[in-house]
Amino acid sequence: MTQSLAPESYTRFLSDAAKERKPSPIRGLYPLEARPGVISLLAGKPNATTFPFTSIKLTARSPTDPSREIETEVNGKALAEGLQYGPTAGLPSFCEWVYELQEREHGRKKGEGWRVSIGAGSQDVIYKAVMAMVNPGDSVLVECPVYAGVLPMFQALHCDLIEVETDSHGIKSNSLRSILQNWPSTKQRPKVLYTVPYGCNPTGMTATLDRRQEVLALAREYDFIILEDDPYYYLYYGDAPRYPSYFTLELKQPEVGRVLRFDSLSKILSSGIRIGFASGPEPLLQAIDMHTAVANLQTSSLTQAITYSLLDAWGYSGFKAHTETVSRFYREKRDVFEGALRRHLEGLAEWSTPEAGMFFWFKLLLGGDEGDSESIIRTKAYERGVLALPGTVFLPRGGKTAYVRAAFSLLAEDEVEEAIKRLRQTILEARQS
Ligand code: PMP
User: Fold this and answer.
1) Protein residue with its CA nearest to atom 11 in ligand 1
2) Can you tell me the mean pLDDT for 297-315?
3) Could you tell me which of 145, 153, 238, 152 has the C-alpha nearest to residue 198?
4) pLDDT above 80 (res 370)
5) Which family does this protein fall into (predicted)?
6) pTM over cut 0.90
7) What pairing do the DSSP bridges indicate for beta strands 403-407 and 69-74?
8) What is the pLDDT of residues 206-223, one digit of tens each?
9) Is residue 366 domain-shared with residue 427, that is, in the same domain?
10) Cα(262) to centroid of ligand 1, in Å?
11) Residue 276, ligand 1, Cβ within 6 A
């Protein structure tokens, strides 16, 4: 039977800063205002009658028929909530939508030892989670290559970044096991593992079911929390049915509560709207919220209200229809990009076909030894008018790599063709020199 990790167990996973953080003396009392009959002199909220907004009208594409527009409006109580300070973890109406989503997508029911917190994008909640869990100098497990956006978080804390090998099937669980088995007895064990399981940034890889299960089993055996950063979950376009998330899979483990999941609406609704959310064990979410209460009080109520208004008008089936359209869009982009790779870089580069996300990760075959893409991509390719990212950017501990990350999300077909031809010329020139 699945048991939840006891709340006290999380003390080990909290950073000293999180343990020492005092709750906001005001925000914690907000719920008391709701008791009927209470006259509240508590919060320094501005009087909403002075706010000039009277309604916010939205027009959006219908998720089932893109030629049609649907209109919705944020007004009345929803507008009042959107314009005012609100709960630290997020606007209640929007949080309810997220609970429903997580139940439908990941089989996680509200009230079963986990909760959500809304952030200004997933980056916001990832950063706060890292600060809530990692102490200066801690060892942290990070997949390698890794999303470059988390490296500065760990570097600023002078963490010992333990690179966990990956391939096109995700984290190599055997390598992870070997790291943990050979962990020096005098060194503090890692408390977290960071991974992007769908359409990884930068490698495009999607972790297979076996690998996910093995990593989860190791989390239990070696007592760490998996930071499941999954902004490309809805951008899965593989042929096979999708794999369950870590957040789902842990329900089948003897113990639940080892996954802190991050979702993002950036890749499916808008990146500028800045909405992401963390879902996971109550004590970790509480630590994230305590950081928010100090850092920015809360994520914008208004963006949450606007987002909710659209999602509510669409309904869950509309949301699904929309995400399917988005993933089909990226699948076509992937196919166009791969077509150009085949035409122009066969024998000059190696790659695996991504099944999710928006990145190709390819290895330049420069002849001779392993090679290094750094100067070729940063200088030579740029001189020829093509800009990509050398793989070094994504190596937690630095070093050389012949890999390159190319984003295929934005380009039109003719631009892809031209970019890959330019890369071909660059590689041919490098092979000659
Ligand atoms: N994680 C990964 C792996 C990403 O690629 C990104 C976006 N580049 C983020 C987190 C942050 O996304 P956002 O804050 O827009 O939700």
Assistant:
1) 123
2) 97
3) 238
4) no
5) Belongs to the class-I pyridoxal-phosphate-dependent aminotransferase family.
6) yes
7) unpaired
8) 999 999 999 999 999 999
9) yes
10) 9
11) yes
14 belongs to a structural domain:
no
Q: Is residue 289 part of a domain?
A: yes
Average pLDDT of the residues in 135-143: 98
How deeply is 180 buried, as exposed, middle or buried, from its count of CB atoms within 10 A (0-12, 13-18, 19+)?
Answer: buried
Q: Is the CB of 149 under 6 A from ligand 1?
A: yes
The parent domain of residue 81 ranges over: 45-318
Which residue, 288, 318, 348, sits at the end of a domain? 318
Residue 295: pLDDT band with limits 50, 70, 90: very high
Distance CA(234)–CA(230), nearest Å, equals 9
Whether complex ipTM tops 0.90: yes
The answer to whether position 24 is within a domain reads no
> Taking a C-beta distance cutoff of 8 angstroms, is the pair 330, 232 a contact?
no
Pair (181, 197) in one structural domain? yes
- Nearest ligand 1 atom, CA 147: 3
304 and 342 together in one domain = no
- Packing angle, helices 92-106 and 76-83, rounded to 10: 100
Please tell me whether residues 340 and 240 are part of one structural domain: no
Q: What percent of the chain has pLDDT over 90?
A: 91
Task: Tell me whether residue 415 is in a domain.
Answer: yes
- Digit-coded pLDDT (tens) for 61-115: 999 998 999 999 999 999 999 999 999 999 999 999 999 999 999 999 999 999 9
CATH classification at residue 364: 3.90.1150.10
Chain segment 152-193, per-residue pLDDT in tens = 999 999 999 999 999 999 999 999 999 999 999 999 999 999
Do 242 and 99 reside in the same domain of the chain? yes
Choose one of 263, 283, 318: the last residue of a domain.
Answer: 318
Number of structural domains in the chain? 2
- Distance, CA 196 to ligand 1 centroid (Å)? 10
Two tokens at 342? 């085949």
Q: Is 432 exposed, middle or buried (0-12, 13-18, 19+ CB in 10 A)?
A: exposed
DSSP 55: -
- Same structural domain for residues 154 and 170? yes
Pocket test for ligand 1, best of 146, 229, 275, 393 (most atoms within 8 A of CB): 229
Instruction: Give the whole-angstrom CA distance, residue 305 versus residue 347.
Output: 51
Check whether residue 272 and residue 355 sit in a common domain. no
Q: What is the position in ligand 1's atom list of the atom closest to the CA of 126?
A: 10
Tokens of 211: 């690998």
DSSP state of 6: P
Provide the token pair at 100: 């429903």
In this prediction, residue 1 carries a pLDDT of 64
Q: Are residues 300 and 410 located together in one domain of the fold?
A: no
The CATH number of residue 268's host domain is 3.40.640.10
